[in-house]
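Mods, move this if it's the wrong board.
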Amino acid sequence: MNKIKIAFMGTPEFAVPVLEGLIKNYNVGLVVTQPDKLVGRHQELKYSPIKEVAIANNIEVFQPIKIRDDYQKILDFQPDIIITCAYGQIIPKVLLETPRFGCINVHASLLPKLRGGAPIHKALIDGYNKTGITIMYMDETMDTGDIISQKEYQIKDTDNVGILHDVLSKIGAELLLETLPSIINNTNLRIPQNSQEATYAYNIKREEEHIEFNKTAREIYNQVRGLNPWPLANIILNGEEMKIIECSIVSTKSKLSAGTIIDVTKESFIIKAKDQAIAVTKVKPFGKKVMSTKDYLNGIDKNKIIDKIVG
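Not the wrong board. Structure tokens:
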């Protein structure tokens, strides 16, 4: 079983445990990942996390700019199975039809819920109480293929994107290894998705990072944790963007308008929401590092923010 030829396609840190698990148990002969990027002020060339793993394990790496136009190397490799996890491009039909065991995807939601590129963020932002991992057959459209196996995770109120990312990454690696033998033996389940139950998790847009305080405190709390630690929620305070890292929900009887800073304590400043309020406890002021709100308040005149309406 471990002699089958696997082509793995993935890019970010989320896919690393999945690839590492495959390498330990199977023959991964080709890794396909997104092209290297220039990052930072000095525009240094950076490999994807998946490329780093492949190089460390002496596995050939293929980095097409557009996989729909450049896939011959994968065909020449003649994989028995293609496994993808957060690769970042739509796989062309010719590749889907090539491997004898098919093309398998590891997706970070309980499909058909949260189809798309940001299922971890949207599970939190949209207030889901559970999510999980789906192992599925790929088809020509986004995350619509037949389900092979799933594993649930009950979302905790203290979870943020970073925590949920790491939990689901580990579950994904474990579930794939549990499921692969049945795929290879042709004894696996194959459950068509009910598209009437589908929800979507498209990539986060810049405007979705901004907090609108005409929402409930719970919706704002979910937005903040659903964007932490990346890309981070933001407000405009005194004309400058401030990232909100952490907050909590607090009750209030204030009749002031939503978006008004109604109180300043030693540990937080409190902003009125549609119903209750949120106490902001960790921030990243414009041009500065992440800090506790206590440290931020120690460096400013608190009278300059009380009763202010944030943008």
